[in-house]
Amino acid sequence: MINLPALQAAIREQGCDGWLLYDFRGSNILARRVLGFPFDQVGSRRWMYFVPAAGAPRKLVHRIEPGALAHLPGEHMVYLRWQEFEAGVQTLVAGCRRVAMEYAPRNSNPYVSRVDAGTVELVRSFGVEVVSSGDLVQQFEALWDAAQWQMHLEAGRHTDSAFARAWEFIAQQIHARGETSEDAVQLVILEHFSEHGLTTYHPPIVAVNAHSSDPHYETGSTPIRPGDLVLIDLWAKLDQPRAVYSDLTRMGFVGDTVPNGYRKIFHIVATARDAAIDCVRQAFANDRPLHGWEVDDAARRVIEAAGYGPHFVHRTGHSIGQETHGNGANMDNLETHEDRRVLRGSCFSIEPGIYLPEFGMRSEVNVFVDWNGQVHVTAGAVQTEVVPILRTTTATATTTARPH
């Protein structure tokens, strides 16, 4: 059930007359999450739900599916013909000057833009200004509660320990056989997830040498041998309703001593990561509004100053929720200009990288801003050096603990 008073207070705070939520065949996951739809309840006809800044909500549903919004408060109108649908939309927004929808001007934020252009045109045709619901979506879909925070911490313990298991497996296979493979390590990680009650939408990335220079590499069967650099990017959540993800990336080297060239690039990446974390900490310590683009800039400045700006080819981080890539603010001023605020109760990754033709380096942590504004770097540790896999099979010698 939606919290109508809180929803309407947020709408007024955004300076809107209402929030117009729309879906067709599950096309608007944001609206469905905000309104509390069951995961498997997807209708076949268009519906609209209008929450005014004050007063009772109103529904518009098709005659075939009159109960589509039955779980929500408010009066409902039923349409059959397309002309009745358009007239119904006009009735919903009558008297409004400004309404929020899942829309972003010029598609500046495709994560928010879930309403098609034609539907936006229809609403505008009634003399209504349509603005983005991005921050409203964050507030009512992307923020965690205490139970989700605890589920994230538990998932983080197991994603953290998956690295130690992977490094140990590589070391054992090298000593026994002289090599292993990317997909063999991937399978070990997936077994670890299964043993600890975790699920994931996609297998982890295990990338050796030049493969690590592809941020979205699809793991293959390439051998892993002494002298190789290994990137592992893994993500998982508890196999429970409403569970949220932990998403981490770490680097290892198959040898006793990490070459200076690898160490140099990793240190630049780690410095950029820490600069982004500090940006978040300082903003909340000073109770200053913070936007996602600012966090991206903080990391990107470090890498650009070191001369590797063209090799940092993705945003600094993404929202984390019930999907690995959640629906809150991203840490981005590259792919989009993320002007949504970083809110209390939100979690996101910070994962700068440098991708050279021969190899890539990335360090990924998760940051959660709690309801008091305290900033937590989760999963227990932050990598400070590339792991020398044959010297140690755990990350304990190469990580620094961060308080929860």
From TrEMBL:
Signal peptide: none
Pfam families, A to Z: Peptidase_M24
Protein's name according to its UniProt entry: M24 family metallopeptidase
Organism: Schlesneria paludicola
Residue stretches making up the Peptidase M24 domain: 153-369
